[in-house]
Write a structure and sequence with these properties.
Elements (H helix, E strand, L loop, with lengths): L6 E4 L13 H14 L4 E3 L11 H15 L5 E5 L4 H13 L4 E4 L9 H12 L6 E5 L1 H4 L5 H7 L5 E6 L5 H10 L4 E4 L5 H6 L4 E4 L6 H12 L3 H15 L7 H11 L16 H16 L10
Parallel strand pairs: 1-8, 2-3, 3-4, 4-5, 5-6, 6-7, 7-8
Protein name: Dihydrodipicolinate synthase family protein
Family: Belongs to the DapA family.
InterPro entries: Aldolase_TIM, DapA-like
Length: about 300
């Protein structure tokens, strides 16, 4: 199905059993909660999905399973995070075979590519596939920034459609809009800047805490889209302490704890990650407990 680069798209966590196998039953339970809340797409195998610990076959199994389970209700994207151009081209080919509707692409992993190398990397993959591509621009975590001049070159590839904007610079939304108008869709990728980015013109939100709180996340997007800004802000202010769990090196463990609290997941992570312990765990649990105790009653955001 075609991808409309707008709305809320959860970067879903990958569910594991205690035996460290994919837990597809629990994964399906979370997918159903996302769909029932009204999300607009699903993103697999990102940082939150523990992509760096997944085998190629596990990524392919997740893609095939999700595509079948979602059954055309929303588009399914898979993250491409490879060390070589050859590997990225192969991953894109496999994604298309497995039923993905689009790709989220990081710059080359490990090697800090220069601007020209980064552009050629994205172009090579774009020219190898029919799938639409969202460039993941996160220089804070991945040390390579895709600048406006680089995007100007990349947009010669018609299937490069969107950017996951995670520079942490809110004014970058305006810069992109000024430079490219609607040619490059903007999906904000930082939970704690999400509403601000949407109000400045971002088209959608690749979200993290949505994994545990799908309805609240979609409500914020839909309310601001309909001009009900005060209502969106009220929910967002309640949400912010929880959203801050996403901008943390232990975001996977944090969000999985939140999923446990809302009945949408388990605490199982894949080593070298380990479940939280001690004061760190107590702090996260207290944030979640406070959030649940004050959970807002949502308006009918779907109508």
């Amino acid at each position: 199905m075609s991808v409309q680069w707008k709305g809320v798209m959860p970067a879903v966590t990958t569910k594991f059993t205690k035996e460290d196998q994919l837990d597809l039953d629990l994964f399906a339970h979370n997918l159903d909660a996302q769909l029932n809340a009204g999300v607009h797409g699903i993103v697999l195998g990102g940082t939150l999905g523990e992509a760096s610990t997944l085998s190629v076959e596990e990524k392919r199994e997740l893609t095939r399973f999700t595509s079948k389970h979602v059954n055309g209700q929303v588009p399914v994207m898979i993250n491409i995070a490879e060390q070589s151009t050859k590997g990225a081209v192969l991953a894109a080919e496999q994604a298309q075979q497995d039923g993905a509707d689009g790709l989220m692409m990081l710059p080359p992993m490990r090697y800090k590519a220069g601007d020209r190398e980064t552009v050629e990397y994205f172009k090579a993959v774009a020219n190898s596939t029919d799938l639409p591509i969202m460039v993941y621009n996160n220089p804070v975590d991945y040390k390579i920034e895709v600048t406006l001049p680089m995007f100007e070159q990349l947009l010669s590839c018609e299937n490069i459609k969107a950017v996951k904007e995670s520079t942490r610079d809110i004014s970058n939304v305006t810069r992109i809009k000024n430079a490219f108008g609607d040619r490059l869709k903007i999906m904000t990728g930082v939970d704690t800047l999400a509403l601000e980015s949407l109000l400045m013109g971002a088209d959608g939100w690749i979200a993290g805490l949505v994994c545990a709180f799908p309805a609240e996340t979609v409500a914020i997007y839909e309310l601001q889209r309909k001009g009900r800004i005060a209502e969106a802000i009220e929910i967002y202010r309640w949400f912010l302490p929880l959203l801050e769990l996403d901008i943390n090196p232990k975001l996977v463990q944090n969000i999985k704890l939140a999923e446990v609290a809302t009945g949408l997941g388990s605490e199982q992570v894949r080593a070298p990650r380990l479940p939280l312990v001690g004061a760190e765990r107590a702090h996260v649990l207290e944030v979640i407990k406070t959030g649940l105790a004050n959970r807002p009653e949502l308006p009918d955001y779907k109508s």
